[in-house]
Amino acid sequence: MITRRDFIKLCMSTAVSFSLTDRIAPFIQQAFATSQAVRPPVIWLELGSCTGNSVSLENAFNPSIDQLLFDMLDLRYHWLLCAEQGAASVQAMLDTVKQEQGQFWLIVEGAVMTADNGRYNELFIRDGKTVTGLAALQEIAPQAKHIIAVGDCACFGGPAAAHPNPCGAKGVWEVIRQPVINIPGCPAHPDWMSGTLGHLLLYGRPELDSYQRPVMFFGQTIHDLCQRRQQYEDGVFARYPGEAGCLYKVGCKGPVTHADCPLRQWNHYVNWPVKAGAPCIGCASPQFPDGLMPFFHHLPELQTGLMPLNVKKIGAALAAAGAGGVVTHLAASIFARRIHRHYLKGTKPEQPLPPENLEQVKQELDDLIKRQQSLLAEAKKLARPGKRRNKKRLLKKISGFLQPQAPKKDETE
Fold first, then answer.
1. Distances (CA, A) of 198 to 67, 73, 206, 213
2. Which pLDDT tens digit goes with each residue over 234-255?
3. Domains contained in the chain, CATH given
């Protein structure tokens, strides 16, 4: 059987022309044949949802959805895919809970509606009484071996929890005490679901980040993996969706969204929003959608793992900060055209996005130290004879950024 390390590498390095499900299926079949794994019974509950994640999973190909379900999983209940409907399908689910206690997997799609004791979302009828999604989750989850939330609504509330949230929509892990594996996205990519399920089947729980997401799929930001990252570094920005250049200025939320969309892509690995000219709206983010709107306005803060830095406030802190890492990072970015004057304008979210884990803080600090050392080295070069011209150029760039001149009026007006 393939080792866990090789399995993770396979998940993280999937070529765009291959289905992840297709690549891991032979290893799972081998594990079944050698009795190293058994098909787990699965109950799939849909709560407050648009069914988008079920549709996304049905888009898996090579193998198809039926091969995925019959070769990897023993699906006992899914209201869309059951052979029976009504009382018979509900009874099959309840029998699984009773007979496979501690062995079945519970997959939850959709947000948990908590207002009015969950009455905004009713799943089925039992003994003549309706059972809410909230009640079903609280009854079934403690008896499951694994609980997997798929889609941003099930993970963090998502669009269902958008303001004013009259139904009290919440993510699964906010409602129950049991550990939950979160596979966000609106919808989640088929590979994120099949890869996580495959890891659970062969090796148990995968490595998770602070938001309980599998690191093998959500360990890096879209910004870090983006094909247009170099254009961001070079200061080449699109002015509107569809134009060539980095889409940060027109609202891309890639810098604050963790997912591997640029590598994996969608629609059978053909395309993804940024490649098609549309900014990422951060649909896999815990703050989606309220914390990332307006979608077509750029982020007003310079997001780092340590803190959000507002460019309007950096000028006032320049004298006090001295030669600190933040200032040298800013100066280096201005000199390299990575931060531009148009960043001074933009919308401001109600709350800045928090750091996600200690590793991100450490990485940002390391980056700041490296940039500080680089700038100090440049400063030493400027102190040498014959370098006065470049020094003035650097100071002019910094001064021009911190004190931008008002635009001149058109003389023809």
1. 14, 10, 10, 15
2. 889 999 999 999 999 999 999 9
3. 4-218 (3.40.50.700), 221-299 (4.10.480.10), 306-404 (no CATH)
